[in-house]
Amino acid sequence: MEKIKMTHPIVEMDGDEMTRVLWAMIKEELLQPFVELNTEYYDLGLRHRDETDDRVTREAAEAIKRHHVGVKCATITPNKQRVEEYSLHQMWKSPNGTIRSILDGTVFRAPIMVSRVSPVVKTWKKPITIARHAYGDVYKNVEFRVPCAGKAELLFTDTEGKELYRETVHDFKGAGVLQGLHNRDESIISFARSCFAYGLSTHQDVWFSTKDTISKQYDQTFKILMQQVFDEEYAEQYAKAGLTYFYTLIDDAVARVIRSEGGFVWACKNYDGDVMSDMVSTAFGSLAMMTSVLVSPDGNYEYEAAHGTVTRHWYRYQESDRMTSTNPVATIFAWSGALRKRGELDGNDALCAFADRLEKATLDTIESGVMTKDLAALAEGDDVVSVDSAAFIRAIREKL
Ligand code: NAP
Ligand code: MG
Fold first, then answer.
1. Of 44, 219, 233, 311, which sees the most CB atoms within 10 A?
2. Best of 99, 307, 325, 387 to mutate for ligand 1, by most ligand atoms within 8 A of CB?
3. What is the 273 CA–ligand 2 centroid distance (Å)?
4. Helix, strand, or coil (residue 73)
5. Which residue from 54, 64, 130 is spatially nearest to 296, judged by alpha carbons?
6. Ligand nearest 329 Cα, by number?
7. 142-146 and 290-295: which strand pairing?
8. pLDDT tens digit string along 61-100?
């Protein structure tokens, strides 16, 4: 066949360990035979980040701003042990954190469903996508132990030095604990835009939940700003598309999510998103079947798998020199997501169709009973064959 052409590039960010191995195999077996891949390549592997003083990560993020679509392999976020293992100059920050702060985006996580693995929650028929507001609240808090009796106050001084608010938090009679939280209108508004844009582009309703009955200023501000962005910028488009925005209290939302069929975007405050995304991904089956996309309010998209570099498999692979049975599905879907978005932005129907076929070939392979070990452990049916990553990818290629 003639290879599918790409008019504009995708920003390709290579990564670490087992996922780096899968990355090369996916390109060689599933992409390059069919598509004339046009990518701007950045090596975010830990060694190269260290060699460039992490400049490569910032350059990759800037490139996403220029080209609007990126695809990223999982990367190591170094800790003390990694600094020794790789003899690093510094304990470099999380690449995902760096990219997110440059693009100012929201992360959407959605499970990939296969009929052979039923969600723990029987009513769930469609994926539930969690959007997490990844700024502020308890993740940027100030807190300390209160050592003795005394008064704790909340005080705000404007830039002129004028005291605008002072309020007693608590009159302590003895030791205790104290915490200060904040958020910014700008960040909440940009979160709202990302959520509504994503709902529209994936044709799904958007739910949002807080505890505004208890938090009459803090959570109420989230509720008001979300509604304002929706009314002013999205209500008309949602009505036209037959979609809705639904607000409810967080505890009511949890109850409704469990009873729902799925098929919507659940926008969450930072902590709720942290907790709920782990619950939802586990209930849908496996972290290896979870995709993740960072969407910025000005329309940049970065696709990746939700899991990490699968270090335990990597060590085993290096020791034995034998292919492991590591699940490449989320990484394949990161590529198909990026290719489809590229196709949509460029009006390249052939590229969009290829992305659809790649996903279908992947799912059909699993439905036919061929899958990696992690899925085989969860799958229903007595015709399940557990294979290593290379055999699994070859089986997908045959279908493709
Ligand atoms: P992980 O790589 O997600 O793996 C944790 C465990 O989950 C694995 O040991 C494996 O379980 C299972 N697993 C995850 N993905 C799988 C897949 N595709 N196929 C089969 N099993 C899979 O998390 P981690 O071990 O905590 O972190 C490893 C490294 O990844 C760390 O250096 C961390 O910084 C980095 N990380 C990067 C990202 C990112 O780039 N977005 C996200 C998270 C973590 P079994 O061993 O039981 O088979
Ligand atoms: Mg978490």
1. 44
2. 307
3. 8
4. coil
5. 64
6. 1
7. unpaired
8. 999 999 999 999 999 999 999 999 999 999 999 999 899 8
Q: pLDDT band for position 282 (50/70/90)? A: confident
The pLDDT of residue 92 is: 94
Dist. CA 67–CA 347, nearest whole Å: 15
Sign for the pseudo-dihedral over CA of 136, 142, 146, 152: negative
Q: Looking at residues 323-345, what average pLDDT do you find?
A: 97
Ligand 1 centroid to residue 66 C-alpha, Å: 30
Q: Whose CA is closest to 343, among 15, 69, 21, 30?
A: 69
**Whole-model pTM?**
0.89
**SS3 state at 180:** strand
Burial class (CB in 10 A: 0-12, 13-18, 19+), 319: exposed
Q: How far apart are CA 74 and CA 60, in angstroms?
A: 14
Record the tokens describing residue 242, joined without a space. Answer: 């037959």
Q: Which of 218, 220, 228 is nearest to 192 (CA)?
A: 228
Digit-coded pLDDT (tens) for 102-151? 988 899 999 999 989 888 999 999 999 999 998 888 888 899 999 999 99
d(CA 200, CA 300): 15
CB neighbour class for 158 (10 Å; exposed up to 12, middle 13-18, buried from 19): exposed
pLDDT tier, 299 (very low <50, low <70, confident <90, very high otherwise):
confident
* pLDDT at res. 159: 96
Q: How many residues does the chain have?
A: 400
pLDDT in tens, 225-278: 999 999 999 999 999 999 999 999 999 999 999 999 999 999 999 899 888 988
Q: How far apart are the first and last CA of the chain?
A: 12
User: Residue 65 is which amino acid?
Assistant: K
Strands of 264-268's sheet, edge to edge? 39-43, 10-14, 69-72, 301-305, 290-295, 106-111, 128-132, 264-268, 205-210, 245-249
Q: Is the CB of 221 under 6 A from ligand 1?
A: no
199-227: per-residue pLDDT in tens?
998 999 999 999 999 999 999 999 999 99
What distance in Å separates the CA atoms of residue 179 and residue 187, rounded to the nearest whole number?
21
**Sequence-ordered list of residues with C-beta below 8 angstroms from that of 364, at least 6 positions apart, any chain:** 399
172 CB-contact burial (10 Å; exposed 0-12 / middle 13-18 / buried 19+): middle
